[in-house]
Amino acid sequence: MSDKFSTANNKHVLNGRSALVIGGTQGIGMGVAQVLAERGASVVVAGRNLHQDGNRTNYSKEKQLQFSKVDLASNVDIKRFAGTFSDEQFDYIVWSAGIFPSGARRETNEGVELTFQIDYLSKFVGLQLLTPKLKEGGRIVTILSPYVESLWGRFISQFDVDDLEFKKPKRFEETQAHKMNITLSILTDLLIKRLSEQHPTKFFSHVHPGQVGSNLLKNSEVPFQTIKELFAGNQHASIKRTPVEYGEVAVFLLTDEDIGKKSGTFYDSEVKEIDQSEFEKKISKQDVDKIWEYSKRVSNTYVI
Ligand SMILES: NC(=O)c1ccc[n+]([C@@H]2O[C@H](COP(=O)([O-])OP(=O)(O)OC[C@H]3O[C@@H](n4cnc5c(N)ncnc54)[C@H](OP(=O)(O)O)[C@@H]3O)[C@@H](O)[C@H]2O)c1
């Protein structure tokens, strides 16, 4: 399918460009990596495993695709992984890796709540370590659900700055999964805003996938039927995009000249800016600083 994004992307030849796609081994990230490689970029695809769904063949055929192993559940491993790249190696970094919260509280071997680690803290650690690996003027796109325009936006009011790792006792229920998802999106967005202020010569954005066909819920072991039904559209008529079609959206964000002049922005799946001003007024500067300090403390020395 050719849509406005692939048409716009046809203007750009990416030969000689270099990209890192974290979570590029399947789903959305794999789509992004394929579009970048087809358009001429050389791409490092990062994840735990190459999957047996055909992309392994592409790796041997297309020299532009290389695999680099990382386990985002481990900050020790993220630090090792980041250390394998040179300063200013990449033009583009895309962070698509993620899981959907199951509503249950699970911990990594490093004692961090699992979804907090995969969907937020890994980015807090990884993006700070990887930003120096991005060239001046380079762009970083993170992919995660929105909160303001989400179906579950009503849970924003329950965002609890004192319980970022979901430690307060709660019932294991579906709404808890949605609350976790909203929290992780808010945290990611605050991170992207802070990084864009700290690095004014590099460009950061956070974008909503909309609905993209992938094995996200199966991979994340989500037990709730209503969430499964909502996502079932992925396999049926209401599917919005395939990973490769969505890859064109991400590549548009990486290459469009006008978008490139903005940093710290949150976009919907049609690349329209999401207005978060009402929510942002409710979260104080002290709370934002508290979240940053908490993230530093939990991730300990990994970013140094
Ligand atoms: N698909 C949608 O419609 C949709 C909608 C809203 C939000 N999202 C968000 O978009 C992001 C990508 O979703 P998706 O549909 O592409 O999911 P997916 O098909 O399940 O792919 C997830 C990716 O994350 C990587 N990953 C997961 N845990 C990892 C770990 N511990 N270490 C390293 N890599 C890890 C996986 O790599 P390995 O398998 O190699 O470990 C895989 O490449 C997620 O944050 C998801 O919540 C997706």
UniProtKB/TrEMBL annotation:
<dbReference type="InterPro" id="IPR036291">
    <property type="entry name" value="NAD(P)-bd_dom_sf"/>
</dbReference>
<keyword id="KW-0560">Oxidoreductase</keyword>
<dbReference type="GO" id="GO:0016491">
    <property type="term" value="F:oxidoreductase activity"/>
</dbReference>
<dbReference type="InterPro" id="IPR002347">
    <property type="entry name" value="SDR_fam"/>
</dbReference>
<protein>
    <submittedName>
        <fullName>Retinol dehydrogenase</fullName>
    </submittedName>
</protein>
<dbReference type="Pfam" id="PF00106">
    <property type="entry name" value="adh_short"/>
</dbReference>
